[in-house]
Design goal:
CATH topology of the largest domain: Rossmann fold
Low-confidence stretches: 91-95
Shape: globular
Structural class: alpha/beta
CATH architecture of the largest domain: 3-Layer(aba) Sandwich
CATH superfamily of the largest domain: HUPs
Number of strands: 13
Distance between the termini: 64 Å
């Protein structure tokens, strides 16, 4: 027999950080029924297999799934191996490239392994939507398509923008929300989670479940976490991310680079600190009696502890202090073998050791003052470097390499 917390306790946890619960009164009824029948809700999260490397921006909605799981409900992670071959058009102004079934399977497995740092792996049900979508006949697809109108589909914000600007919209993109909705039908989803950019897809799921005679799911949307730059949504392509599999020193250092106005948001959405602790953090930030830097350091330690352990957090903090406060060097620096007395342009050197993907990017780093050798800043991107054993190149705040 499952012991569920009270309705109020569950709602307090579920609502934390949520943007919308649609409709909230239906969620209350579902929870009341769950308590009465002692039956857990099926809580669904679709996994996008085009992004196998997870960062804490992805963790926001995964953490919400873990909260439902901790309340006693069934967490269901749906790997969109079949829908990945269509490509989710959400937030896109062009057609999203499709993946092969093999690629989506490999990425899905990687996603689950990383998500297991947050979810209880043994209690999470993982399914692949090719199990039901690949079995649909063309007749089935036609019948499914008849249950939704073009007018409703074109209401979708990104479709509307593309249509007005003359950007092409392929018919198969209309099938993505319908296919995702069939996932909700297949597993009889009670609640579906997603980012705010997924709202349209989740609502389609409600409509299609109703068409198949099922009780429609409640949808819960979570905010899109702003990246470390404080401007754009967290993204690896923008290099404003904190990866959940990153090394402790990387997690610690990247966390300290976020602007102060994001400290509370990161605590709320990316950690498991209690609501009482959240209230304390909010009070400290608003009062001005505590230096935000100290609260940010606590956030950095919390994140490293979550994805590694407390010892790793303490080590990462000590290393950061040694490099940036005491102006020291890391205890361990990667070495790069190159013969003595060789001459090389600074841009070529930066690219050679993989600290920049191109000479143009290396030039930008030099011009921004982010490159030094043995503590001496390099300001001329045309400078020739005479390499010698023991020389240390530093690029940015955390990249060091020693030549031998």
């Amino acid at each position: 027999m499952i012991t569920f917390p009270s309705l109020n306790e569950q709602m307090d946890i579920i609502k934390r950080g949520s943007v919308e619960i649609i409709p909230e009164d239906e969620l209350v009824k579902k929870l009341e029924k769950s308590l009465k029948t002692n039956k857990p809700l099926n809580v669904k999260l679709g996994c996008d297999p085009s992004r196998p490397d997870l960062h804490i921006g992805h963790s926001v909605v995964i953490r919400k799934l873990a909260q439902f799981q901790s309340l006693g409900h069934q967490a269901i992670l749906i790997v969109g191996d079949f829908t990945g071959m269509i490509g989710d058009p959400s937030g896109r102004n062009t057609t999203r490239p499709a993946l092969t079934l093999e690629q989506t399977r490999i990425n899905g497995e990687s996603y689950f392994e990383q998500a297991s740092k947050i979810l209880n792996k043994e209690k999470t049900k993982i399914v692949y939507n090719s199990d039901w979508l690949s079995k649909m006949s063309f007749e089935d697809v036609i019948k499914l398509s008849s249950k939704y109108t073009v007018a409703r589909m074109i209401e979708r914000d990104d479709f509307t923008k593309r249509f007005k600007s003359g950007e092409p919209i392929s018919i198969h993109e209309f099938l993505y929300p319908l296919a995702q909705a069939m996932d909700s039908v297949a597993i009889e989803s009670d609640v579906e989670l997603g980012g705010t950019d997924q709202k349209f897809n989740l609502l389609v799921g409600r409509d299609i479940q109703r068409e198949f005679g099922l009780e429609p799911q409640v949808i819960l949307t979570m905010p899109l976490l702003v990246g470390t730059d404080g401007v754009e949504k967290m993204s690896k392509s923008l290099d404003n991310y904190i990866g959940i599999t990153d090394e402790p020193s990387q997690i610690f250092g990247r966390t300290l680079s976020i602007p102060d106005n994001l400290i509370y948001t990161y605590f709320e959405l990316a950690t498991d600190v209690s609501n009482n602790k959240l209230a304390e953090i909010k009070s400290q930030l608003e009062s001005g009696n505590v230096n935000p830097r100290d609260i940010k350091r606590e956030l950095a330690r919390t994140l490293v502890t979550m994805y590694h352990n407390q010892e790793a957090a303490e080590t990462a903090q000590a290393e950061f202090d040694n490099i940036f406060i005491n102006k020291g060097l890391p205890d361990e620096i990667e070495e790069f073998s190159i013969g003595n007395n060789q001459e090389i342009n600074i841009l070529d050197l930066i690219v050679l050791v993989n600290f920049a993907p191109s000479k143009a990017e290396a030039r930008r780093l030099v011009q921004q003052g982010g490159v030094s050798i043995d503590g001496e800043k390099i300001s001329d991107f045309k400078q020739i470097i005479f390499l010698k054993s023991g020389m240390i190149l530093k690029v940015g705040k955390r990249k060091f390499i020693k030549f031998n």
